[in-house]
Amino acid sequence: MEKNRVSIKVCGSSYTILTEDDTAYVEELAELIDSEMKQVSQSSPSLSTTQCAVLVALDQADACKKATASADNLRAQIKDYLEDSARARMEVDVARREIERLSRENSNLRSRLAGK
């Protein structure tokens, strides 16, 4: 796949990123990180840029880990729903066959009664 060269600026420092991702996407990520670093820096002016970056990285890693856990949980729930749905479909098929059997039996019994 073709690599894109993206120039970004975070906390006043310029970076050139070589990525397969869309340029706008990488720029959006840079804006997010820049914004978060500015917020951390404003709330704790005594922190260095590296310390701000570490705090933002920890926050992002936490969000990523929680999102992954949430996605895993949703996948497990969907799997359970699919299994329940398959079970219900099987039960419906069994019930339909039983209804058909009882309907035939009912028809046979009516025929016998009508013939007497």
Describe the structure.
This protein has helices at residues 23-43, 49-115, and strands at 4-10, 13-19. The longest helix is centred in the C-terminal third of the chain and has 67 residues, at 49-115. The termini are far apart. Helix 1 (23-43) packs across helix 2 (49-115). It has two helices and two strands, in the order ββαα.
Sequence-ordered SSE layout with sheet pairings:
Layout: E1 4-10, E2 13-19, H1 23-43, H2 49-115
Antiparallel strand pairs: 1-2
Helix pairs in contact: 1-2
Q: What would you report as the Rg, rounded to the nearest angstrom?
A: 31 Å
Number of strands: 2
**Largest sheet at a glance?**
2 strands, antiparallel
| H/E topology pattern | EEHH
User: What do the pLDDT scores average to?
Assistant: 96
Keywords, separated by commas or semicolons:
2 strands; alpha+beta; 116 residues
Structure described in brief:
By secondary structure, the protein is α+β, with helices and mostly antiparallel strands. It has helices at 23-43, 49-115, and strands spanning 4-10, 13-19.
